[in-house]
Each structure stands twice: as C-alpha cells, then as structure tokens.
C-alpha cells in the first residue's frame, strides 16, 4: 500500500448519523488519492465514537481519536492534525455542511505549490451561505470584520471558515503559538503563523444540516472574543486578566454608588462601607462567573460554593492591598502611589487565587 498523502481531520460532537454519509462522500470525492480520515470525538453521548470505530472495522483508513472529559472544536482539530504523519492535512466539519467535492482542487493547489493554506470559502466568488438565518449571516459578517485586526493585512474573504487544507509541517510549527480556545482554528492558525504564509480560497456552497444540530452558542461567541484579545494583547497580559480587571473596576463603581446612597440616607459609615463591600464583591463574582470564566461557570449549589471562596480570596486580597499600601505610605510615598500599588497587588492576588480556587477546572 502506498503511503498516505492526505489526512482528513473531522472534529465531531453528536454527529452519529453523519458518520456514514460523510465517509461515503469522501470516498466518492477522492478517487485515486491515498487519504485517511481521523475523527476526533469528544465522547459524544449519542455514540458517535462507537459508530466510527464500528465503520473503521471494514475501512482501514478510518480511525477515531476518542477524547474523554474534553470539549472544543479547535483543540480537537489540533490534536487530530498532531496525530497525522501525512504531508497534507485537511480539517472539515462532520455534519456535511462543508462541500467535500472541492477537496481534490484544494489538494491540487498545495501539490503544485500555489499556496500553503487553502481555505474552503463561502464568500469567495461562487461560494454561498446556504439558507442561513439573517441574524447568523450578520453575526458572521461582524465577526469576519473583527478578525481583520489580527490577520496582518491579509485579504481573506472567509477568515471564519472551519474548512481548510495545509501542509502538515507548517501547521506543526504554528501549534506552540496557537490560542486554541474555541471554534476558530483557521483564524488562530493564520494569525499565529509567519506573515509570508500564502493563503488561497476555494469557493463552495455551505450546505444545510440534515442530521443533528449546530453547537454554535453564546459560549462560542465568548471564545471568539477571548481569541481576538489573546492575539492582540496576549503577549503582554492574559485576556482573562483584562476581563477580571474590568470587572474589578465595575465593582469599585458599584461600591461608591451604594456607599454614597447609604450615607446620604443616614446609614452609619461602618455599616454602609461593609454592605457596599459585600455588594461589590457579589456583583464582581456574578460578572466574573458569566464573563471572565464563562467556560467554567458554576451551576446549582456550586454557585454558592464559588461565591464563598470568592469572598474568602477577596478578603485576603483586601488585606494584601491595605498592607502594601500602608507600608508604602509609612515609607513616605504619596497617598496615590501607595494606594495604586495596593490596588494592583490586590487585583493580581485576587486574579491568581480565584483562578486556582474559585474557577479551577
Ligand atoms: N470534537 C469536537 N468537540 N467537535 C465539535 C465540538 C466540540 O466541542 N463542537 C462542535 N464540534 C464539531 C461538530 O460536530 C461539527 O462536526 C463541527 O465541529 C462544526 O460544528 P457545528 O456546530 O456544525 O458548527 P457550525 O456549522 O455552526 O459552524 C461551522 O462552520 C462554519 C463555516 O465554515 C464551524 O466550522 C465554524 O467554525 C465555521 O465558521
Ligand atoms: Mn455545522
């Protein structure tokens, strides 16, 4: 048997009824090409992995990378590619929405060295969205515009595509620089690669789903925001720290608003200050839980456990803050430098410890 030229990576979550149709479609689309298909399944409750393994019994070029306790389209694509030794790799959705019939054309561009990455494109001439809802099309358009900030001036018509083919060694080089969060593996790859990477697009018409349903939800949008932040400023500060600090600033606003309201209503200072502190810590917890750590959100009783640990850590953080500030103030630094240093140390302390104790996985 000749060696495999192309590995096709298929991330799946709950796609059981799409496995067989996809394998048949790939066989029909790639006659004469030696390829393998690697499903990367996150232990789908519908038994997708079992279906793949069963079909692999009679198809030696099919295997399943079965991940337990994990989720994520990007990380699935990355691990699938890392498991390949073929010169070319492609990533395609497992739900038949990406048209597999353009794969030979994509491979041809790479073989003839016309490009380093070939993108299956819904927006290039001849491509289309299928019958996407208006709101999804608008969202995709906005997301695409935002992505230009990290594309290093490249003019890519469909940067949000999840369908592409590339040279495996090029991808391997980019892996240590990837953000990996979320859905947008192609964007991540291009933004993490050398500016000389040559990108070509092949148009196709996005098909409608027949089996199963889309996994795109608010968490996917959130992950996209984190990816953009990470690519823009991640080399200086972690994106989550930025969110954490913004939430902290909102807490200061809550604190002062409540404090002044209570003071003018005649509440004693100590009582007002304590209540305002408690309220600000609570809104900070709420916001961090649904924004900064949206992917690790607490549910049910866990929410209260999380809140308790957040109070505890922030209480210690406040002690650190006051300790540093008063030490500096004693050493004759002006009040605002002392206070500023206290706030910075307290924020970093809270960020580090809550990431360990409140939102650990
Ligand atoms: N392993 C794994 N883990 N696979 C996943 C996960 C996950 O957590 N979430 C989704 N998938 C798989 C799905 O099973 C499917 O094969 C593929 O990733 C795409 O998921 P969909 O939920 O169908 O996404 P979509 O159709 O809304 O959007 C897709 O197509 C767009 C156009 O190319 C994605 O690929 C988008 O990134 C892309 O912009
Ligand atoms: Mn889909």
Explain the overall architecture.
- By secondary structure, this protein is an alpha/beta fold.
- Helix content is 51%, strand content 10%.
- It has twelve helices and seven strands.
- Strands 3-2-1-4-6-5-7 form a seven-stranded mixed sheet, sandwiched between helices.
- Helix 1 links the parallel strand 1 (6-12) and strand 2.
- Helix 10 (269-292) packs across helix 11 (302-330) and helix 11 runs antiparallel to helix 12 (335-357).
- The chain starts with 5 loop residues before the first strand and ends with a helix.
- The relative contact order is 0.09.
- The mean pLDDT is 93.
- The structure holds guanosine-5'-diphosphate-alpha-D-mannose (GDD) and manganese (II) ion (MN).
- Residues 93, 95, 97, 209, 214 line the site of manganese (II) ion.
């Amino acid at each position: 048997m000749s060696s495999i030229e192309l590995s096709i990576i298929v991330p799946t979550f709950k796609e059981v009824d799409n496995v067989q149709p996809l394998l048949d479609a790939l066989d029909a689309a790639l006659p004469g090409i030696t390829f393998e298909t690697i499903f990367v399944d996150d232990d789908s409750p519908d038994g997708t992995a079992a279906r793949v393994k069963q079909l692999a019994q009679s198809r030696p070029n099919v295997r399943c990378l079965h991940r337990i306790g994990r989720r994520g389209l990007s990380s699935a694509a990355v691990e699938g590619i890392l498991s390949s030794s073929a010169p070319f790799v492609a990533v395609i959705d497992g739900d038949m929405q990406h048209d597999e019939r353009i794969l030979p054309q994509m491979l041809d561009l790479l073989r003839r060295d016309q490009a380093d990455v070939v993108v299956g494109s819904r927006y290039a001439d001849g491509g289309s969205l299928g019958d996407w809802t208006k709101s999804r099309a608008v969202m995709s358009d906005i997301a695409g515009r935002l992505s230009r900030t990290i594309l290093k001036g490249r003019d890519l018509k469909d940067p949000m595509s999840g369908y592409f083919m590339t040279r495996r060694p090029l991808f391997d080089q980019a892996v240590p620089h990837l953000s990996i969060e979320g859905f947008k593996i192609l964007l991540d790859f291009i933004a993490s690669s050398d500016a000389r990477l040559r990108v070509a697009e092949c148009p196709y018409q996005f098909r409608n789903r027949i089996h199963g349903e889309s996994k795109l939800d608010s968490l996917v949008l959130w992950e996209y925001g984190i990816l953009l932040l990470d690519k823009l400023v991640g080399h200086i500060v972690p994106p989550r720290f930025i969110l954490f600090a913004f939430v902290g600033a909102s807490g200061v606003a809550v604190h002062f608003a409540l404090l002044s309201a209570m003071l003018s209503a005649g509440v004693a200072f100590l009582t007002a200050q304590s209540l305002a502190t408690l309220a600000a810590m609570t809104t900070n917890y709420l916001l961090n839980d649904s924004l900064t750590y949206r992917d690790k959100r607490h549910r049910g009783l866990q929410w209260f456990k999380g809140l308790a640990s957040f109070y505890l850590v922030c209480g210690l953080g406040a002690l650190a803050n006051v300790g540093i500030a008063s030490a500096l103030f004693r050493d004759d630094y002006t009040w605002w430098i002392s206070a500023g240093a206290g706030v910075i140390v307290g924020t970093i302390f809270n960020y580090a410890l809550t990431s360990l104790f409140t939102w650990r996985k």
